[in-house]
Amino acid sequence: MSLIAVTPHRAQLGEGPFWDVPTQALYWVNIAGKQALRLMGGQLQVWQLPEHVSAFIPCASGDALVTLSSGVYRLDLVTEALTLLCVADPQAGNRGNEARCDAQGRLWLGTMQNNIGEQGEDLPITRRSGGLFRIDADATVTPLLSGLGIPNTLLWSDDGRQVHFGDSLDATLYQHGIQADGQLDPAQLWFGPHARGGPRRLGHGRRGVYLERPLGRQLPAASDACRGGRSYRRAARQPPHQLRVRRAGSHHAVHHQCRQPLGPSAGWRAAGHGRRRARQTLSPLCRINL
């Protein structure tokens, strides 16, 4: 597998890659550098923001949402004006860390105690003050989870009945059932902790589900930034399968069988370790319905 840098830009803490299919553009953030970035048509554009930013997701209306330390804002991509949408987490000293849009166009935001100083330096995490929140199109905020350490990764089943969610402080991935009223069932252990390191992010592809750094290192295929193109369209036609995750290299492989079938995939170009990897399908990344 060969890797090609699509831009010479280097981030202090690059996170949240989001591939927008309609515009064929890649969105991501430099959290510590307070930057929102978009690569479109081979051109890189950078929006310098006043606070740490953890997510940059386009809206159906043509602007974008950015999750800053003080709240969730709408960003006008032309004038660069920021307009406050809501304050999802009122806890002083917290910041956003993980954000994804579900199939209904709602933003899910995970927060944590801020661990980044003004100059990008590391700060210690001393409390579990984070939470998980859902933000609807009318800016209504619904608290879903509390007492989180470092929220990371969100992945839904296609039928909308389950969400996979990780807490890196626990080195664990959890599975929650989604109730009819939108609240979450109690967490069920899905993966971890593991003696050689904890998972940080889930990615899904035509040949399986990939875990980023499940054993203390990053697997080559684990990147949401690889979504799109012909691979996107091919994978969308894959039928549901049971999920089978190969967590390690071919010499030290362990497996986890998830018995819930998962739905149609956004698909991303994937390659990784191991000879066998069951095909499976999951929900695509979506634009914010605003």
The tally of helices reads: 1
Low confidence ranges: 205-210, 212-284
State the end-to-end CA separation.
38 Å
Coarse structural class:
mainly beta
Specify the helix fraction band: under 10%
Output the radius of gyration. 18 Å
Q: Give the overall silhouette.
A: globular
Explained architecture:
It contains 1 helix and 20 strands. The longest helix is centred in the C-terminal third of the chain and has 7 residues, at 229-235. A hairpin with a 5-residue loop joins strand 9 (94-101) and strand 10 (107-113). A 4-stranded antiparallel beta sheet has the order 1-2-3-4, with no helix packed on it. A 4-stranded antiparallel beta sheet has the order 5-6-7-8, with no helix packed on it. Strands 9-10-11-12 form a 4-stranded antiparallel beta sheet, with no helix packed on it. The chain has one helix at residues 229-235; strands spanning 14-20, 25-30, 35-40, 43-48, 53-58, 64-68, 71-75, 82-86, 94-101, 107-113, 130-135, 141-148, 151-156, 162-167, 172-177, 188-191, 201-205, 208-212, 241-246, 255-262. The chain has 290 residues and is an all-beta fold. The N and C termini lie far apart (38 Å). Mean pLDDT is 75; it is low at 205-210 and 212-284.
